[in-house]
Amino acid sequence: MKLAGVQPDSVTFLSALYACSRGGLVDLGLDYFHSIGEMQDMEPQLDHYVCVVDLLGRAGRLEEAMGILETMPFRPNALIYKTMLTACKVHRNLPLGEDMARRGLDLDPSDPSFHLLLANLYDDCGRSDLGEETRRSMRLRKQSG
């Protein structure tokens, strides 16, 4: 696009970040992300930050992903916490996963996906007792609601 003199827009960058995330092209994705701020009249939006957290999380770079989450100029939403929780499940990081589930549930206590992701994380980390307890708690909430 640069060679053709075409200015990428926000959606183009989002698509490129998504493709890099799915393709495991972490360094290229980070280059794209950082170049958004270099564009005239363009700043990264929350969706861009979610994609970068996904990019880093899939690569197992959870500390870097948390650094992005903690320093972004937006208030985190449920999606970014689910993205981090999913990465924690993949890479079996129980302490960080529990923290992401807690933060997500603080935002939206009625969202069952946090409970399910956390239960699966417990199972994957050899804590099926906590996984079952989390599922049981989820069923009780559903019955009472």
Summarize the structure.
One of its GO terms (molecular function) is RNA binding. With 145 residues, the chain is an all-alpha fold.
Helix-and-strand structural type: mainly alpha
For the record, the CATH architecture of the largest domain stands as Alpha Horseshoe
* Largest sheet: number of strands, sense, barrel closure: none
Shape: elongated
Helix content: over 70%
- End-to-end CA span: 52 Å
Mean pLDDT: 93
How many domain regions?
A: 2
Low-confidence stretches: none
The CATH topology annotation of the largest domain reads as Serine Threonine Protein Phosphatase 5, Tetratricopeptide repeat
Write out the CATH superfamily name of the largest domain.
Answer: Tetratricopeptide repeat domain
Number of strands: 0
Determine the number of helices (DSSP H or I, runs of at least 4 residues). 8
Q: Strand content of the residues, in percent?
A: under 5%
Quaternary structure of the protein: single chain
SSE order: HHHHHHHH
Rg value:
17 Å
CATH first level of the largest domain: which class?
Mainly Alpha
Describe the structure.
The protein folds into 2 domains: 74 residues, Tetratricopeptide repeat domain (Serine Threonine Protein Phosphatase 5, Tetratricopeptide repeat, Alpha Horseshoe); 71 residues. It is elongated and about 55 Å long. It is an all-alpha fold and 145 residues long. One of its GO terms (molecular function) is RNA binding. This is Pentatricopeptide repeat-containing protein. Pfam families: PPR (PF01535).
How do the strands and helices of this protein lay out in sequence?
Elements (H helix, E strand, L loop, with lengths): L9 H14 L2 H11 L9 H13 L3 H10 L6 H13 L3 H14 L4 H13 L3 H17 L1
Organism: Rhizophora mucronata
Protein name: Pentatricopeptide repeat-containing protein
InterPro entries: PPR_At4g14850-like_plant, PPR_rpt, TPR-like_helical_dom_sf
